[in-house]
UniProtKB/TrEMBL annotation, chain A:
Sequence ranges assigned to domain ChsH2 C-terminal OB-fold in this UniProt record: 48-111
Protein's name in the database: Zn-ribbon domain-containing OB-fold protein
One family name in Pfam for this protein: OB_ChsH2_C
SUPFAM superfamilies membership: Nucleic acid-binding proteins
Organism of derivation: Candidatus Iainarchaeum sp
From TrEMBL, chain B:
Function of the protein: Catalyzes the condensation of acetyl-CoA with acetoacetyl-CoA to form 3-hydroxy-3-methylglutaryl-CoA (HMG-CoA). Functions in the mevalonate (MVA) pathway leading to isopentenyl diphosphate (IPP), a key precursor for the biosynthesis of isoprenoid compounds that are building blocks of archaeal membrane lipids.
NCBIfam families, A to Z: HMG_CoA_syn_Arc, PRK04262.1
Catalysis performed (reactions): acetoacetyl-CoA + acetyl-CoA + H2O = (3S)-3-hydroxy-3-methylglutaryl-CoA + CoA + H(+)
Domain Hydroxymethylglutaryl-coenzyme A synthase N-terminal: 3-166
Name recorded for this polypeptide: Hydroxymethylglutaryl-CoA synthase
Amino acid sequence: MFRDSSIIRWRAYKDRYMLEGYECSSCGKKYFESKGMCPCGSIEFNEIEFSGVGKIVSFTQIHSGPEAFSEQGKYCVAIIDLAEGARITAQIVDCKFEDLAIGTNVEAVFRKFYKSGEKGAIHYGTKFVPKF
Amino acid sequence: MAGIIGYGAYIPKYRVSAEEIAAVQEANANAIKRGLGLTEKSVPGKDEDTITIATHAARDALARAGINKKDIGAIYVGSESHPYAVKPSSAIVAEAIGIGNDYTAVDTEFACKAGSATIQINAGLVDSKMVKYGVSIGADTSQAEPGNALEYSAAAGGAAFIIGSNKESLAIIDKTVSFTSDTPDFWRRSMQAYPSHAGRFTGEPAYFKHVIGATKLLLEKTKTKIEDYTYVVFHMPNGKFPRAVAKIFKVTEEQLVPGLVVEKIGNTYSGSSLLGLAAVLDIAKPGDKILMTSYGSGSGSDSFALTVTEKITEAQGKARTTQDYIDRKEYLSYAKYLKHMETIH
Ligand SMILES: [Zn+2]
């Protein structure tokens, strides 16, 4: 869901800006989003920082996105497996849709997400670019 | 003095050629290219601005420094294109590189020397032991009014430097001096989208007076001669001005060209002389001496004498080089360029 609130976005800075996540302290499985319980039964997690390197698992092109993204025109979105093991959905930029494939190596970059109108805040976060 | 313990460059992927702009301005592209000494310029992606460019460069600088990020006590971002009129770019960059909350930050502005001035500030903080490490960044997505002569050169890019103690440095700052005066060569009033400039006045009494003034002062105070330096970097508003200063000081092609990044990316404003410095650090060897003089309209120049240490060799390979970013490119049509600059929507 698309919620245009500076405060809601601010609460997500930690994982959106830095690609921070969680590692199960028992089995070591890594997650991008916080989990209540790991399938291994553990409820203890350590905070970790992902390297930002990953591979595309699946991808698509959005031709008509939310109004806040209209400045970008059409854009690519992909499901990415991070090198450390967690899975994340993110925009892929600085590339053409035709250049992408399953298995394309990508790396995290810090970019503008959208602006809240003419006067509102500018929202930033992590996107990915094909590794170059 | 303190020194550079990590550095990083960043240039967006997109370019617009002088030919493409000249066709719209109905100008002679070859005359422009000869006159300005550049063939194309960098253009930000639609989702890039000074903050994202600064963050990218700072992450590469951190990769090279290999320090505990939480030991950073100061961060300064110098730019004339901070995305917010009020809200610091520096705090957003600090959050994005994850240095915690125990740091001081402020955005600086002095046309194209807003970044180099923060290296002096951080060196002072490090030498007085107020902070262990400080981050200095110069980054811009400079704007030029369509049809204006600046349109050929106003580009996007930036460089970041982590300043720390002398013994941790990959390049020690031997000396830094400044040469400053109140000069009305180039400005942008509050709430104005594009800068104004005083035409030919931007040359002799502005750029040349200050760049030459600061460089002479540095040579005097360090009792060095220009031939003592392996590399010499002057601020690059175009390809012609730094070459003209080089001629006056008898700087050789070998000293000048490695840092002369303007020809393929244009003037990255606060990033310009700093990207030149990053480019020479990419190829420098222990013992090399570097002279760098920035220039900011209004006007002032900061001049630095640096000595490269043996720590450079390991640091060079830990992140992409300035040349890697210069070589990565995609050309835009003039219409797409305007869309990237948000001139049209
Ligand atoms: Zn587990």
